[in-house]
Amino acid sequence: xxxxxxxxxxxxxxxxxxxxxVDKANGYAAQADTKMAQLTAATKNIDxxxxxxxxxxxxxxxxxxxxxxxxxxxxxxxxxAVASQELSAQANxxxxxxxxxxxx
Length: 104
Fold this sequence. Notes:
Layout: H1 2-100
């Protein structure tokens, strides 16, 4: 009888130990779920950041294109100013020549 009682006692201790291990495993599983949720959130943030970087790159490219157009317009305006001055000088010369003629 004593041996059976000892075995039952041993089984009860082992069941208690197994139950404690299951509780620990459940705790680890809950921690793993929490970490997985954090990892998922971090991955989502990285994805959103990547999308923002894409938008920033497109904006930068647009600004570079605008800068090229402004530079071209500035160059054209400078050329127009030179041409305007030349035309003004020619008009003054032509006015001087016309003043020399008299209609009779």
